[in-house]
Amino acid sequence: MIKLTLVVAVAKNGVIGRDGALPWRLSSDLKRFKAATMGKPVLMGRKTWESLPKRPLPGRANLVLTRDASFVAEGARVFSSLDAMLAAGRAIAQASGADEVCVIGGAQVYEATLPLADRIVLTEVNLEPEGNARLDLDLSRWRDVSREAVARGPNDEADFLVRVLERGLLPREGEKVSAKLADEGAR
């Protein structure tokens, strides 16, 4: 079965974007993002597509979701239906031998696909930037498979924690776990 994986970076305050761009510079995490998504279909919303510094992302089938039926994304496949985009992503993954499809943003696409996802690759960024794109992940039904603290590198604005989560943890009564850094209780 082809897995659906969300690949997302979230700041301590839930911010994931500012004015159509990442609100931080984390070269180390961008390298991890590239390694996690290379050779796999990447699914994204129109605003995420437009924010990419290089379009399409090389080495990956780029699939874009938009409400605008006339939207053209050169080098990508455009969809107006989430179900159609997911089906196409899975078919592309299967045909190419990839084991997963990666959702890479933005907030509305993450929120729509979270209930369908099998896995989350979550970068928790140790910053609280201003931003107009936010994401509050309810991780109460997810379990950590791995976690790695990454120290701030020479081309990074902050340190960060990379967590890989899989669906399956049964929540405690009334528990809601937000995407927070380890020093805020998500240890």
CATH architectural grouping = 3-Layer(aba) Sandwich
- The average pLDDT value, as a whole number, equals 91
Global geometry? globular
Task: Report the β-strand fraction as a percent range.
Answer: 25-35%
Number of helices: 4
User: CATH superfamily name?
Assistant: Dihydrofolate Reductase, subunit A
- Determine the fraction of residues in helical runs and give it as a percent range: 10-25%
Commentary on this structure:
The chain contains four helices and ten strands. It has one domain: 3-Layer(aba) Sandwich (Dihydrofolate Reductase, subunit A), CATH 3.40.430.10. The radius of gyration is 16 Å and the shape is globular. The longest helix has 15 residues, at 82-96. α2 links the parallel β3 and β4. An eight-stranded mixed β-sheet has the order 5-4-3-6-1-7-10-9, with helices on both faces. The protein has a two-stranded antiparallel ribbon with strand order 2-8. It is an alpha/beta fold.
Q: Quick summary of this structure?
A:
The chain is of the alpha/beta class. It contains four helices and ten strands; from the N terminus they run E-E-H-E-H-E-E-H-E-H-E-E-E-E. It has one domain: Dihydrofolate Reductase, subunit A (3-Layer(aba) Sandwich).
Task: Produce the secondary structure layout.
Layout: E1 3-11, E2 15-17, H1 27-37, E3 42-45, H2 46-51, E4 62-65, E5 77-79, H3 82-96, E6 100-103, H4 107-113, E7 119-125, E8 133-134, E9 142-150, E10 160-167
Parallel strand pairs: 1-6, 1-7, 3-4, 3-6, 4-5
Antiparallel strand pairs: 2-8, 7-10, 9-10
